[in-house]
From TrEMBL:
Gene Ontology molecular-function annotations: TBP-class protein binding
InterPro entries: Cyclin-like_sf, TFIIB_cyclin
A Pfam family that the UniProt record links to this protein: TFIIB
Organism: Natrinema pallidum DSM 3751
Record's protein name: Transcription factor TFIIB cyclin-related protein
Residue ranges of every copy of the Transcription factor TFIIB cyclin-like domain listed in the record: 17-93
Length: 102
């Protein structure tokens, strides 16, 4: 659970996350998980926030069983696939989840 203060501070980013989730037609569960993952480890640099947002959406979709490809999420979020690939496992681990080993 994250504080209301976090949600207010990062509201513009959470709105972007919701917009990208809508493009991907993600389930409510996947969106909720993505928000939690994003708020767990928001980077200080605005430049890195978009990549973490995309990685959170990808990881959230996996956790919710509503998986999307890294490429589809990268395209919808306007980031490189490598940005997602290099971050999503760390996000899951930071949230106390074990990433899949495939």
């Amino acid at each position: 659970m994250h504080s209301a203060r976090d949600r207010i501070e990062y509201e513009p980013w959470l709105e972007d996350l919701e917009t990208v989730a809508e493009r991907l037609e993600l389930s409510t569960e996947a969106r909720s998980c993505a928000v939690d993952l994003f708020l767990t480890d928001v980077p200080a640099s605005d430049r890195s926030k978009r990549a973490v947002l995309a990685a959170s959406l990808y990881a959230g979709s996996l956790v919710a069983g509503d998986g999307r490809t890294q490429g589809a999420v990268a395209e919808a979020a306007d980031v490189s696939r490598l940005s997602i690939q290099s971050r999503w496992k760390e996000l899951l681990e930071a949230a106390g989840l074990e990433p899949p080993r495939w």
